[in-house]
Design goal:
79 residues, DNA polymerase, domain 1, 5 helices
């Protein structure tokens, strides 16, 4: 189940970030463990430039769980 607040936070200022965050929420969040779910929620609290830097690997993730979430976001298939 997708918490409504997270769905709202997935709506970013950039279409590319929208697709990645909404894709993770739709395809991975429901089966993720609570620690991974919390890492995703924390990512959604970041400003767009910081989140984009993490997604583009311009900034290292703060921990391994966040790195896992980012990897799953990057490997989403939108075709």
């Amino acid at each position: 189940m997708q918490p409504p607040r997270l769905k709202w936070l997935c709506r970013r200022g950039m279409r590319e970030l929208d697709k990645l965050t909404e894709g993770y929420l739709l395809h991975h969040y429901g089966t993720a463990n609570p620690i991974e779910q919390e890492a995703f929620a924390q990512l959604l609290e970041l400003p767009d430039p910081e989140l984009l830097a993490l997604v583009l690997e311009q900034q290292p993730p703060p921990d391994d769980v966040t790195a896992l979430v980012l990897t799953r976001m990057r490997t989403l298939n939108f075709s």
